[in-house]
Amino acid sequence: MAETALFVQRLMELLRLDTQPVGVKMYRRKEELPRRPYNWKVNICQLVCQARYQGKFASGTPDLMICAIGAACTGLIKTPARFTTGQAAVGRYVADLEAGRKFMANTYKLGDKGRLYEGIYVGPLAGFKEVDPEVVVIYGNPAQIMRLIHATLFETGEAVKADTVAEAALCSCIGYALGEQKPVIGFPCAGDRTFGGTQKDELLFALPFSFFETLIENLESLQMAAGQVYPVGPFMNWTPSMVPAYTLKPEDLEEGK
């Protein structure tokens, strides 16, 4: 566990992230959760926001949640019919039922396989001690996410999947990283921005915890091979042009000789 904290520290140094990476662990029985959920209803994006900004741990169960699609994406409930048919998206995100069906089919939902879990445990990745998380969630700007993509494909060259439906993206990416055991890029949804404090310049990156150490090692390799990975330094070996009044003239060089 202490080693994880060191890898987190190195990630923060390499990418200069504004908020902490977050760990997520799912529980098949809510009695096994390390702490009791709040006694008021909250969404998963709120728990993640609290973890990455405030460094707090929290648990959640579906009976104490509001967001149905988030619970379905993470397998806390069986996906309700209004999502599998696409009806929930009609008039809000898409024009008709057929478009809604495709829209929701492209939103990764563990709940399509039925109810798999009873609880979710969320906290700052560096603070996990008694148990390992299953998924890591990182928020960053596009340039930072670019480097996470490079670190992912460093050894294989394989493209990283992106969730471009922008619906329940945080929860959908958690579900994908857990269910497929692969990293994924997400475009935060309207709910994550409204309830989870996600900023307009942020994307999210989710990956299986089992890949986290390799990700950091690959970032280190990129740093050694190409220099600073973030920020990307501008190329300065060129001569600028300026307005005549501010441009050095030959006579300026002769003054005071």
Could you name the key traits of this structure?
13% strand; alpha+beta; 257 residues; seven-stranded mixed beta sheet; 7 strands; 37% helix
Describe, in plain words, how this protein is organized in 3D:
The mean pLDDT is 96. The protein has helices spanning 2-15, 44-54, 68-73, 81-84, 97-105, 142-153, 169-180, 190-195, 212-226, 250-254; strands spanning 22-27, 58-60, 119-124, 135-140, 161-163, 184-186, 203-208. Helices cover 37% and strands 13% of the residues. The protein is globular and about 85 Å long. It has one domain (2-254). The chain has 257 residues and is α+β, with helices and mostly antiparallel strands. The N and C termini lie far apart (68 Å). α7 (169-180) links the parallel β5 and β6. It contains ten helices and seven strands.
Quick synopsis:
The protein is 37% helix and 13% strand. The chain is of the alpha+beta class and 257 residues long.
**N-end to C-end Cα span:** 68 Å
Query: Class by helix and strand content?
Result: alpha+beta
Which bin fits the share of residues in helices? Answer: 25-40%
Outline, from the CA principal axes?
Answer: globular
Note the main sheet.
Answer: 7 strands, mixed
